[in-house]
Design goal:
Elements: E1 2-5, H1 8-14, E2 23-30, E3 36-38, H2 53-61, H3 67-80, E4 85-89, E5 101-105, E6 115-123
Parallel strand pairs: 3-4
Antiparallel strand pairs: 1-5, 2-6, 4-5
């Protein structure tokens, strides 16, 4: 599985880096059209909130402990149907002003010739800046 995102901060956060890690960023370009299941696209729907596919997908990807297992099952299904990967909303989009999609491509897409490496750069962490607020403690 190859993970990617168009947002570098999200990539760094989701990789759970340490300050001493050597970090490399690659720009990848598809060699041909890929068959991708996009689970991040908002669907125009006329149903109420109890029948909303948008709300269902949103809850799946924000399901804390359960999201990883659910996402794996969706990925297995997509792989079985011949997809090259899935696009899904980043868990950390909840703390960003915009929704940020991630991509997971199955198998080894570079080795398999589906992607070519356009550039590789090293990332040096200079500063990390969190914006936060305090909230009540419930006991």
């Amino acid at each position: 599985m190859l993970y990617g995102s168009s947002n570098i901060e999200i990539c760094l956060q989701e990789c759970r880096l340490n300050i001493i890690d050597e970090i490399y960023l690659a720009k990848l370009i598809p060699k041909s059209k890929l068959k991708i299941l996009d689970l991040s696209t908002r669907i125009i729907e006329e149903d109420n909130e109890f029948e909303s596919l948008n709300l269902t997908l949103n809850y799946i990807f924000c399901a804390e402990k359960h999201a990883y297992k659910i996402c794996r099952q969706l990925a297995k299904y997509a792989y079985g149907k011949g997809y090259d990967g899935i696009i899904y909303p980043s868990y950390f989009s909840q703390v960003k002003p915009e929704s940020i999609p991630n991509i997971a491509l199955f198998n080894s897409p570079i080795k398999d010739g589906k992607l070519k490496v356009s550039a590789i750069n090293r990332i040096l962490l200079n500063q990390i800046d969190y914006k936060f607020s305090f909230g009540p403690i419930f006991q």
